[in-house]
Input
Amino acid sequence: MAGQNAQSRSRGAGTASLRRLPLYYRLLQQLVAGGVRHVSSGIIGRDLGLDPTQVRKDIEALGLAGRPRIGFAVIDLLHGIESFLGWDRPKDAVLAGAGNLGSALLRYKRFGEYGVQIVAAFDTDPEKIGRAIDGKEVYLLDSLPGRVRRMGVHLGVITTPPRAAQRVADLMVEGGVRAIWNFAPVHLRVPPSVVVQNEDLGHALASLSLRLAQEGPEEGLGGPVRPDPDLGAEDPDAAPRGGAQPDEE
Output
């Protein structure tokens, strides 16, 4: 029941809020390692350069409440974020494109912390097929739909060149994949029931370069670091911001 409630709340969460939750999670892990048992939204906001009121709203969306003058239990926050984001419900994934980026993702050890385990890879290169990368075997790409159906996998990762990405997406959809993490710089055409998360590295670098240029040559390299404005943005569907609440400060 708790997992179902978390899934229901997560469907109504805004994009900006979902981007902030992993930041909270990493900070909370550091606090646990340091022996900290309680934390306030003010401290989280201070350490991450975010508005404490927005932090409090994000935490309230998890269904958690702080205690006056004590704050939130750090362990409860960690478990709340894990449940809200589905990290406590492990999901198998397959990856297509066992090149440099794909191989790096196959070797990445911390996906398990986020409830994801890549269990197999697919490629068209005869030299890669039949090999194992960090214990994950590489199969012929054309076998993807059948293998994915048999394995019951619903999450796919695409790290192919752009020209191959649409065909890979079609094969994944044919195999029953319902969510695609796409690293190829191309727009994928998929059914409305399939969720696509695009990771355009070129867009990210262009944004970083532009912000650096806007800072100027001196301030941009040696001036204060400013947080990503998207992380501190109010969600469009969030309630109007009110005054500070006394629930946990």
